[in-house]
Design a protein that fits this description.
156 residues, alpha+beta, nine-stranded antiparallel β-sheet
Length: 156
C-alpha cells in the first residue's frame, strides 16, 4: 500500500468526524466501500495514535502508529511494533519519520490480515502496543465490535 494513500486516509478520517474536539481519543471507522480505515484518535483534530487502512479484498493492512515518547529517534529508523495480548505477539515491521507538525515520530508499515490478527481484533478486543523506547499503550475495541467486523470484511 503506498504511503500517500495511507496519509490521505488518515487525514480524511480525522477531518470527516463530527464529534466535539474536546473528546478523549476513541476508535472510529471510515468505510468508503472500496476502502476502510479505523483510527484511534480525537475526532475533528489531527490527533491520532493508531491508523489501520485497507482496500476491499486486499489482505494488506497499512499500519500507522504515532510514537509520543521518542524525541531523538532518527529519521528512517527501522524497527518492529509489537501487538500483544494474552501471550500472543504479532510483529509489524515499520519505518519511522518525524512529523512536520510536532515532535511525534510516525511509524508506518504493512501487515497481512491473517487469522491470528482477526482473532486479536474480533475475539480478544484488546491489545497492547510495545515499541522499544516508548511506553506500552493498551487499546480496547469494547463498544466497537460491529465496526471491527465491517473493517475485517472489507479487508479480506
Amino acid at each position: 500500500m503506498e504511503k500517500g494513500w495511507v496519509l490521505l486516509a488518515l487525514g480524511l478520517a480525522l477531518a470527516s468526524s463530527s464529534a466535539c474536539a474536546e473528546e478523549k481519543p476513541r476508535w472510529q471507522l471510515f468505510d468508503e466501500g472500496e476502502n476502510a480505515t479505523i483510527v484511534f484518535g480525537v475526532p475533528e483534530t489531527d490527533y491520532a495514535e493508531v491508523n489501520l487502512s485497507c482496500r476491499k479484498n486486499m489482505p494488506d493492512i497499512a499500519f500507522v502508529y504515532v510514537a509520543l515518547d521518542m524525541p531523538k529517534a532518527p529519521e528512517g529508523l527501522r524497527t518492529n511494533v509489537v501487538l500483544v495480548n494474552k501471550g500472543f505477539e504479532y510483529r509489524i515491521p515499520v519505518v519511522g519519520s518525524r512529523s512536520m507538525m510536532d515532535d511525534a515520530f510516525i511509524l508506518e508499515g504493512t501487515f497481512r490480515m491473517e487469522a491470528s490478527v482477526k482473532r486479536l481484533f474480533e475475539q480478544e478486543r484488546r491489545f497492547t502496543v510495545k515499541l522499544k523506547g516508548e511506553r506500552d499503550r493498551t487499546y480496547s475495541f469494547d463498544g466497537f465490535r460491529n465496526e471491527i467486523r465491517k473493517f475485517i470484511e472489507t479487508c479480506r
